[in-house]
Amino acid sequence: MGKASQALKGVLENYGISQNKLAVAMGISRANVGRWFHGLDPSAENIAAITIALKPIDREAAKEFVRQYLGEIVEDDSD
User: Fold this and answer.
1) pTM as predicted
2) How many domains does the chain have?
3) What single-letter DSSP state applies at residue 47?
4) Which ranges of the chain does DSSP label H, i.e. alpha helix?
């Protein structure tokens, strides 16, 4: 399972967001979200689309998805 797939699975589970709800928000089939949820990493374009779709559902979930996926890349070392 890739890093983006792990981040997506964790966020959906932790924030109680169904695969179907994300799929509807993205305008795609639930099967596509299911593939990502079960291990197929989404493309860079889809990672951006996931983040955009998560924001109106749960802004904190969107932030957490990015944080889990990018991790220390976006962390501020000055804290």
Assistant:
1) 0.87
2) 1
3) H
4) 3-14, 19-26, 30-37, 44-57, 59-70
